[in-house]
Write a structure and sequence with these properties.
The protein has about 110 residues and is mainly β. Helices cover about 10% and strands about 25% of the residues. The chain is built from one helix and eight strands; from the N terminus they run ββββββαββ.
Length: about 110
């Protein structure tokens, strides 16, 4: 899978769900994304190996969405938990950051 068609996207005015994309191994097509207005969820992408494509993401939850402006990164069996931890320290999340059931052994 390839997200190249989204390469000019800088803002999502709601929620962003990236779920169950079997062959997706990177998020490089989202390299221009800076702001997600609601929550962001990345889960069940078993071949996803990094979050480098989100390197320009600055904020999750910039809009008012009833306090559910969370960042969830879970059940990505090839995604190293230490990479997730490093990524989340560089993003302002107005809600809760939750990550679990990723690759802890890397």
């Amino acid at each position: 899978s390839d997200l190249g068609g989204l390469s000019n996207l800088t803002y999502v005015g709601g929620n962003l769900d990236i779920h169950g994309n079997g062959p997706l191994d990177n998020l490089n097509g989202l390299s221009s994304l800076e702001d997600v207005g609601g929550y962001m969820s990345i889960w069940g992408n078993h071949f996803l190996i990094d979050l480098d494509g989100l390197s320009n993401l600055q904020i999750v939850g910039s809009d008012e969405f009833d306090g559910f402006n969370n960042l969830l990164i879970s059940y990505n069996s090839s995604l190293c938990q230490s990479h997730i931890d490093a990524f989340t320290t560089g993003v302002l999340v107005t809600g809760v950051v939750s990550s679990n059931h990723n690759d802890d052994g890397c």
